[in-house]
Write a structure and sequence with these properties.
With 353 residues, the chain is of the alpha/beta class. The chain contains 14 helices and nine strands. The strands form two sheets. A six-stranded parallel β-sheet has the order 2-3-4-5-6-7. A three-stranded parallel β-sheet has the order 8-1-9. Strand 3, helix 5 and strand 4 form a beta-alpha-beta unit. Helix 2 packs across helix 9 and helix 5 packs parallel to helix 6. The structure holds 5'-deoxyadenosine.
Length: 353
């Protein structure tokens, strides 16, 4: 089959919300600024009936940077002896939520390395405590790969959502990014399990990670098309100086924005954050992300003294200000481009009948 012209493929994607692998390659590889502008306009049109001008916020709590894994790209990989490690205790975590709740956050994202100290029981206890104190909030977990039984317990404890980026849908690329004990097939098993257990589930990948090609990106989009996640997290790869990828170039901001638009057209109701990595790479990255089709931002609620320690990559964006000030500035910058930051759980829009 001969893939068509990129503009035609964009139209086909808008009509059918799916493409064949070679068509994805031609559409992604056909990137030009003009094509990206067309994709962004379509993305905004597809988002409109579901979300209007609403932007959802999630309070991100980076509660541990201990990690048993050794992913080659990540600054908190276990073999990075230079990373000062920390864990927040129960009271510190609840106090982040309290601050967030007062500011209007109705989703809390507990994100951390794969830290065995946080046993299933400890995670469940935290989830129960948050849901008991703030029953109207949504709790999202982002703590990596665990057993099905663990995921089931988290769900029973009240967790609503789970973020687990697939990182890349290409076997060979997956092995280049990860140590031998990690596998794409297990990653995908985890994602399918999470979905089956009733989590609103998020997948995603970095843009421009070492070894990524137009072909691997096409596989990522085919995977998203098949898996139909509720959320998709993508951001540029950014090197971290204490990892094997220290000398690798950062991913492209423009390509990230283009892919955000394609993902919005593919999955019109998806919850799509403009990530911290995008905000770190591009000036006004979050605003540009919204204009490309994103509808979520995840401001940091972690205590200021640990924010610098949760460094997956170098130069991580942080406002250097307290949460309240950061939120006010976010609201202002979103209002300036015509978007309204709203204070609700921000669940995914239902599929049309
Ligand atoms: N650059 C950009 N993103 C990164 N992540 C980890 N390390 C980096 C990096 N160096 C992303 C991974 C992970 C998420 C929490 O952060 O995709 O799933």
């Amino acid at each position: 089959m001969i893939p068509g012209h990129p503009t035609q493929l964009l139209q086909k994607l808008s009509r059918e919300h799916r493409l064949a692998p070679l068509e994805w390659e031609a559409l992604i590889g056909g990137y030009t600024p003009e094509l990206a502008a067309q994709a962004a306009e379509l993305a905004r049109d597809f988002r409109e009936p579901f979300y209007g001008k609403k932007i959802f916020i999630r309070g991100l709590i980076e509660f541990t940077n201990y990690c048993r894994n050794d992913c080659l790209y990540c600054g908190i990989r276990r073999s990075n002896r230079n990373a000062p490690r920390y864990r927040l205790n129960r009271e510190e975590i609840l106090s982040c939520c309290e601050t967030g709740w007062e500011l209007g956050f109705r989703t809390f994202v507990l994100q951390g390395g794969e830290d065995p100290w946080f046993t299933d029981e400890r995670i469940c206890e935290l989830v129960r405590a948050i849901k008991k104190r703030w029953p109207e909030c949504a709790v999202t977990l982002s703590i990596g790969e665990r057993e099905e039984e663990s995921y089931r317990k988290f769900r029973e404890a009240g967790a609503d959502r789970y973020l687990l980026r697939h990182e890349t849908a290409d076997e060979c690329h997956y092995r280049r990014l990860h140590p031998p004990e990690l596998s794409l097939s297990h990653r995908l098993d985890c994602l399918r399990t999470l979905k089956r257990l009733g989590f609103q589930t998020g997948a995603g990948f970095m843009v421009g990670s070492p070894g990524q090609t137009v072909g691997t990106l096409a596989k990522d989009l085919v995977f998203l098309q098949e898996f139909q996640p509720d959320m998709v997290g993508i951001g540029p790869f950014l090197p971290h100086h204490d990892t094997p990828f220290a000398g690798e170039p950062a991913g492209s901001g423009e390509l990230t924005l283009y892919l955000l638009s394609l993902i919005r057209i593919l999955l019109p109701q998806v919850l799509l954050p403009a990530t911290t990595a995008l905000g770190t790479l591009l000036p006004n990255g979050r605003e540009q992300g919204m204009l490309a089709g994103a509808n979520v931002v995840m401001p940091n609620l972690s205590p200021e003294d640990v924010r610098d320690k949760y460094t997956l990559y170098d130069n991580k964006l942080h406002s250097g200000s307290e949460a309240a000030e950061g939120l006010r500035r976010l609201q202002e910058s979103m209002a300036a481009i015509g978007y309204q930051v709203v204070c609700d759980r921000g669940d995914r829009a239902k599929r049309q009948p």
